[in-house]
Every structure is written in structure tokens, then in C-alpha cells.
Amino acid sequence: MHRARALVAVLHELGADGRSYPADRKRGRRMRAGSLNERLQHLAEQAGVPYIDNKKVTSHSWRAGANTDMKARGVPLAERNLACR
Fold it and tell me: CA 85 → CA 11, 46, 54, 66, distances in Å?
């Protein structure tokens, strides 16, 4: 949660609404493999935080990072499953 909150806070401070899209990419009906990762990294770079805790922001770190942080704090698996969905 720490990594996710840090990125969201910076994006909010910069006024990013999460809707901007890289100029070289076209919107379509389906998201291709890797699009989420590219989009998240693009937003992180725009926010000036492509790395959080010395780790590159990725779609996997966005999803798994919160679970890892909660596990480190001793949050039970059932609660982590609910929170991370």
C-alpha cells in the first residue's frame, strides 16, 4: 500500500487525472499485453517518480506491492485478499 499511496499522492499533487494517454499510442477496444504496464510507467514518469523505494514502478509492483507491504505488517491473508481485489 505504501508504494501505491506514494504514487497516487504524487499524481494527485501534480494534477494528473490518470486519463492522459501517450501520444504515440492509440486507444482501442481491447488492451494489449503490456499496455497497463506501459501506461502506469508513463504516468509514474510524468509524476517524476518512475522509482519508488528504489524499485521501478510496474503493473506487477502496483498489484503485488500492496500485498507485500501488508504482509510485512502482519495483516492476515484473508484481509489481504479482500483489500487487494
Answer: 22, 26, 25, 11
Please give the Cα distance from 67 to 73 (Å, whole number).
10
SS3 50: coil
pLDDT tens per residue, range 33-54? 688 888 888 988 888 888 888 8
- With beta carbons less than 8 A apart as the criterion, state whether 7 and 44 touch: yes
Residue 6, pLDDT above cutoff 80? no
Contacts (Cβ under 8 Å, ≥6 apart) of 20: 43, 46
